[in-house]
Amino acid sequence: MTDGVRRSQQRHIPRSPGMMDVAKLAGVSHQTVSRVINDHANVRPQTRERVMEAMRELDYQPNSAARALVTRRSRTIGIITFDSTLFGPASMVYGIEQAARAAGYFVSIASVRSLSRRSVLDAVNQLRGQSVEGIVALVPKDSGVAALASVPPGIALVGVGVGGAADVPMVGVNNTAGASLATRHLLDLGHSTVYHVSGPAGWPEARERRAGWRDTIVAAGASLPDVLAGDWSAQSGYQNGQLLARDKQVTAIFCGNDQMALGVLRAMYDVGRRVPDDVSVVGFDDIPEAPYLIPPLTTVRQDFTELGRRSIDLLLGIATGARPHGQIQLTPQLKVRTSSARSS
């Protein structure tokens, strides 16, 4: 290729618009454009809007790295999560991410394969290397929660879905209250007691839901059945449901999440026990498919959108020097559908 041809091709490569182009189109100085980009307060609203319109027209994209050097702010929030397709954790991450973007922040996600102390602290260091302004940690196992206590105190940190006993500022649903709602609902329908298919050991949310179920049973003076432990999956719900289906005294079951409740529904169907005529079933989470199961599933609903908003509000408050609240617990709602009915 000759130098003339190379120069000719180079002349046809479009140049990305720069700050001076924005300034020229908006009729302002490049210093004013810089102030708008860096959120300086001393810019008149009309001028700010004129600059923003010029940026949109030119499709000008500010250099985020340069901006961080000037403002000492990355406008980025880190999220630590773990590799999971479970509805609850995945919905929490989505709610947090949407809330962060609505507040004008970028999001950087560090996903860990295990919730060991080392893995969680490595994720914290990874995000610190990206100059995030704070970290939201979704690490809903005891090992991961314990690791958060070792995070350096200078980092704005909020735990989400990590249980009420976490030693960090926390936002989550009141699992104990939600389990109590579900159990109380079944007892009020005339069932003599309620069986429980629990989430796995080592998960604070499973422990709190189990406690809410147990305390409600004891307070009602009903007999307390043994807990059947699952692993949040529909398969574990099905396996435990097969055991419960063989016992004709079982007329009411509260499951620690909706996936396990789905497995219980299938187990009852396979042995010919009708839901809700013979057995009432209640879940937890209110997955999108819950109203469309056969029968539609009664469940405890978590507001993941509000959870995301509150966690970001708390994190940004801490990042700007506010004293952190110990815990923020959202009240869940019972969604009554036709998988629960009066005891026959």
List the helices and strands and how they pair.
Elements: H1 3-11, H2 19-26, H3 30-37, H4 45-58, H5 64-71, E1 76-82, H6 87-102, E2 106-112, H7 117-128, E3 135-137, H8 142-148, E4 157-160, E5 170-173, H9 175-188, E6 195-198, H10 204-219, E7 228-229, H11 234-245, E8 252-255, H12 258-270, E9 280-285, E10 298-301, H13 304-319, E11 327-330, E12 333-335
Parallel strand pairs: 1-2, 1-3, 3-4, 4-5, 5-11, 6-7, 6-8, 8-9, 9-10
Antiparallel strand pairs: 10-12
Brief characterization of the structure:
This protein is an alpha/beta fold and 344 residues long.
Can you give keywords for this protein?
344 residues, alpha/beta, 434 Repressor (Amino-terminal Domain), Rossmann fold, 6-stranded parallel β-sheet, 6-stranded mixed β-sheet, 44% helix
Folded structure, characterized:
By secondary structure, the chain is α/β, with parallel strands linked by helices. The protein has three domains: 3-71, 434 Repressor (Amino-terminal Domain), CATH 1.10.260; 76-173 and 304-331, Response regulator (Rossmann fold), CATH 3.40.50; 175-302, Rossmann fold, CATH 3.40.50. The chain contains 13 helices and twelve strands. It has helices spanning 3-11, 19-26, 30-37, 45-58, 64-71, 87-102, 117-128, 142-148, 175-188, 204-219, 234-245, 258-270, 304-319; strands at residues 76-82, 106-112, 135-137, 157-160, 170-173, 195-198, 228-229, 252-255, 280-285, 298-301, 327-330, 333-335. A six-stranded parallel β-sheet has the order 2-1-3-4-5-11, with helices on both faces. A six-stranded mixed β-sheet has the order 7-6-8-9-10-12, with helices on both faces. Strand 1 (76-82), helix 6 and strand 2 form a beta-alpha-beta unit. Helix 6 (87-102) packs across helix 13 and helix 9 packs parallel to helix 10. Mean pLDDT is 86; it is low at 4-13.
